[in-house]
Amino acid sequence: MVAQIKHVLPPVSRLHYKRGDLIIKQGDYGISIYKIVKGKVRIVRESGGKEVALATLGPGEVIGEMSFFNKSVEPRSASARALTDVEVEVWHPARLTREYEQMPPVIKLIADKMLSRLLKTNALIGKLGAKLEESKAQERPHEAEASGRRFYRKQVDLECSYRPIDAPPKARFPGKIKDISLAGIGMEVNSIGRSSVMHDLGELLHVSTVLPNNKEVEFIAKIVDIRKGRLPGRLFLGMAYVDVSEDARKKLGFFMMP
Amino acid sequence: MSIEKVIYGYIAHEEDYPDKTEIIQQGSKGDWAFVIIEGEVKVKKKTPKGWLTVDTLRKGDIFGEMAMITKGECLRTASVFANGPVKVGVLDTDRVIKDYESLSPQMRTLLRALVTRLKDSTDQLANLVSRIAG
To answer: Where are the extended beta strands (E) located within A48-153?
Structure first.
């Protein structure tokens, strides 16, 4: 029994993010909880294309607790972005979920009430904040965009198949996914004997694969970067998701859990 | 909304307040929490532009729990006013805290994070509303 528990409880892992990285993206699914060990993190809510800062957190504080309390039936309600280089401790929610289920009902009730109030308040802040930004936009020039969206990338080595979106579903080319993030994938393909058009910047490809946890996912992604592969005749394509179903987002979100 | 059965066992005593009574005063000290048995209360924050209502709570809702979980270390973050006559149950702080302390340190950290986040968000909401109103 003890051995079994040990087996399902992965050790606490630590992750490093660079300044500007998104640690959590609003709208994604995920249930990991992060405790900040080093650095500063800003919690922002996106509403109407604008980011409204909700809080700035430092060492000792946790992020991602909302989805945990929500059992992740709701997507992440806010984004968390590294303001400095950040080190976090990742708490796997399995044990905590069990504790939550078994905790004294009165505490659970209080937690649930606080949670629903918080969700309501945050939704209001998002709305009002966007309104305020709108009215301010006329008064002062736009501030430069915050640093680009960079994501934690999980290194993988996954067989996949892909085809141009306008090709018949029967057309399938083998590729290899080398990394996955919540924004897209890095895919290695064979360029010999393939139409060069297919591997052009901006091309949309339909990609399907089976994640290591045996979940099948498919999505449409756009080629945003092309580099020579490590072997001759190989290309490394940087791809950004264009169309990912809700279901595929969930699977990817859970797979991305460190 | 109804009152969850579990909470009844934690009510130490009941109190009645007439309309407009300030049941909790923003900035004061105290670590007890209430559950609304009958009636309605308004949660208000004091801002430079006057009182701002940030929430309305009804039967079964709990208030004052933020100071309770932080064991009175944080002052009351908002005032709570009776909106019409209201009957509240005062929760037995010692028993709730005992339950709270039976939790793992990680779970307590999570709950405290929830309190902090709620406090920050409520402050920010009040701030935004007063800026828009002004």
So the answer is: 50-57, 62-63, 79-82, 86-91, 150-151
Higher pLDDT, A134 or B95: B95
Contact of B56 with chain A, judged by CB distance below 8 Å, is answered with no
Amino acid symbol at A57: L
**Residues A126-159: tens digit of each pLDDT:** 788 777 766 665 554 433 333 334 567 788 889 9
**B contacts of A115 (beta carbons < 8 Å):** 114
Residues 19-78 of A with CB under 8 A from B: 33, 35, 54-55, 61-62, 65-66, 68-69
Of B62, B95, B121, which is closest to A110 when you measure between CB atoms?
B62
* A202 phi, psi to nearest 5 deg: 90, -15
CATH code, residues A153-255? 2.40.10.220
What ipTM goes with this model?
0.91
CATH of domain B5-133: 2.60.120.10
Q: How many CA atoms lie within 13 A of B57 on its CB side?
A: 27
Q: Which fold has domain A2-137?
A: Jelly Rolls (2.60.120)
CA–CA gap between residue A11 and residue A32 (Å, rounded)? 13
Cβ under 8 Å to B: A residues 121-150: 121-122, 124-125, 128-129, 131-132
User: For the whole prediction, is pTM greater than 0.80?
Assistant: no
Q: What would the mean pLDDT of A66-95 be, rounded to a whole number?
A: 84
A vs B: CB pairs below 8 A:
101
